[in-house]
Amino acid sequence: MRIYTKQGDSGMSVLFDGARVPKHHLRLETYGTLDELNCHLGLAIAGCQHEQLKQQLGQLQRRIFDLGADLATPLGSANEAKVRRIGAQDVAELEKQIDTATAELAPLKTFILPGGGMTAGHLHVARTVCRRAERHLSALMETAAVGDQPLIFVNRLSDLLFTLARLANKLDGVTDVTWKS
Questions:
Q1: How many domains does the chain fold into?
Q2: Residue 73 three-state SS
């Protein structure tokens, strides 16, 4: 597989159904932001010292890649059967992970600031990129059919990343940074 195709040299990109759209198209902006999120998770994994958390983050990377393919393939297109669509079962899995991690943490009594240990810091950055992807996806849904589960998935994913940042701090023996006015 060649890395360069020269197909994007004119400022256009090809969706998985063959449609050509400008590189600034909101669909590309959305799954490009998910790609950025995936990179931040890669940084979190690279610095993480906890094997179970690393595996969990790696699985999240795979689901985010699935979501990118989902969004790159408009509903009803000829290649639709070739992609894994994000569904309610994916949302339920994220909720289960949030509940499991939350059970290991002290209840929140105040807002916390992004930070603490290195892994938590990377996860907080990932969370903010996830929220940006959510905003792009919400806007995309105003003009394109993408189903309702991708937005719900991204919303839960940001909640999970927040929770996993707190868990990473706990595992690293670092106290969350609390907000004081």
A1: 1
A2: coil
